[in-house]
Structure formats: structure tokens, C-alpha cells
Amino acid sequence: xFFKNHKFDNISPDDLREKMEQGRDLLLLDxxxxxxxxxxxxxxxxxxxxxxxxxxxxxxxRKKEIVVYCRVGNRSAFASAYLARLGFDAKNLEGxxxxxxxxxHASLARVS
Length: 112
Known about the structure:
With 112 residues, this protein is of the alpha/beta class. It has one domain (2-111): Rhodanese-like domain (Oxidized Rhodanese, domain 1). It contains five helices and seven strands.
């Protein structure tokens, strides 16, 4: 994928679940719309819609790993590349919440 040139890594749902189970200090960043977030989100995630990210980047911690997700991974790849260019440790959740929900990790997702 062309976003790979911007020095961020992808993370699989399995790898994310492992980090969460280990209690790793990370921020889950949802870059979908408020309506998407309200209907389903990974528990504990922080919402900043991708179109607001440039104006709200100061809300994000500089010294914490950030795992970015959206529905299938396109918006989050863009956001991860943007954050990586700004010096954040950003990772893109492969397949987004759609992939997350299709695994046995679905119990860690909030569905309204």
C-alpha cells in the first residue's frame, strides 16, 4: 500500500489483542464519524474523526503508541501516515473494526 512510505506499521487484530491483554500503554484512536463510533467501537477508544485530526492533534500523547482504526483501514492508514510524519508512534489496525469484529476479539468491542 502506498501509505507504507510514511514510516508507520500495520498491526493485526491478533497483535493488538495481545498488547491489550498484556496491559500495554497505548491509545486506541478511532478516526470514523461520531455515528460510526456510537454504533460500534473498540472499548476504551478515543474518537477524533479523520477530517478533524489536523486541528485536534494536540490532544494526542507524544510518548504513547497510538493504534489507529476505522471501518476497514483506509482512513486509519491515512491518519497513521499523517501522525507518523508528525513524529507519533502510530500503527494502523489492519482491516479496521470490520476485521476486529470478525475475530474472537469481538468481545472487546462495544456495540450499541
